[in-house]
Design goal:
This protein is 13% helix and 32% strand. The chain is an alpha+beta fold. The structure holds the ligand Nc1nc2c(c(=O)[nH]1)N[C@H]1C(S)=C(S)[C@@H](COP(=O)(O)O)O[C@H]1N2 and molybdenum atom.
Length: 193
């Protein structure tokens, strides 16, 4: 019965998740402020060609809008938000990862890190996003650019991204070192290792 209510909303949420009103800010530490003229996105590690993009170069890449749901490991979810950004796979293509590259460490302004399998990063709905529901991201939600990895818990969606490091072997990022799951699939409740 419950399943039919609100257009299947219940089945839309992974186990143990509930909808929130509003959009919580979940940051370990402070909010970094990055002037656009100093912003860079660096691609390095197991790649054929290291790349450093300026804001103008990044914004010249093909842009995408998509609607997706997000799920925080602490139990809140938001559904149906619209994000605008550049597909991660289009950015990754610029540096041509070596065949040995298996995982990526997202490095952020402010020091946060999180690891993502390369195959997860290359899915077509993974964005390097700068706009949310029609507005530029606010500083506390990751302006200028954050990852949005809708199929993994939201801690993988690194805010204030400054570099993607291509790795031949997966390695834990910040929360993963404290026991969060290496992959973090909300449908399998991969919360903690
Ligand atoms: N740079 C950075 N990115 C981060 C975090 C952080 O502390 N620093 N927190 C993560 C966690 S645990 C979550 S749930 C989401 C929260 O994003 P929000 O604050 O936009 O809701 O960002 C993720 N990305
Ligand atoms: Mo989180």
């Amino acid at each position: 019965m419950e399943r039919e209510g609100r257009g299947g909303q219940k089945d839309r949420l992974p186990p143990g998740q509930r909808l929130v009103v509003g959009w919580p800010v979940m940051t370990y530490g402070g909010t970094p402020v990055i002037p656009l003229e100093r912003w860079r996105l660096r691609l390095f590690g197991a790649v054929e060609r290291e790349v450093e993009l300026s804001w103008e170069e990044f914004m010249a890449l093909p842009k995408t809008k998509l609607v997706c749901d997000i799920h925080c490991v602490t139990g809140w979810s938001r559904v149906g938000d619209e994000w605008e950004g550049v597909r991660a796979k289009d950015v990754v293509a610029l540096c041509r990862p070596l065949p040995e590259a298996k995982a990526v460490m997202a490095h952020c302004y402010g020091g946060y890190t999180t690891n993502i399998l390369l195959e997860d990063l290359l899915l077509p709905d993974v964005l390097l996003a700068y706009r949310h529901n029609g507005k530029d991201l606010s500083p506390e939600h990751g302006w200028p650019v954050r990852l949005v990895v809708p199929h993994l818990y939201f801690w993988k969606s690194a805010k204030w991204v400054r570099a993607l490091e291509f790795m031949t072997k997966d390695r834990p990022g910040f929360w993963e070192m404290y026991g969060y799951h290496m992959r973090g699939d909300p449908w399998r409740e991969e919360r903690y290792a």
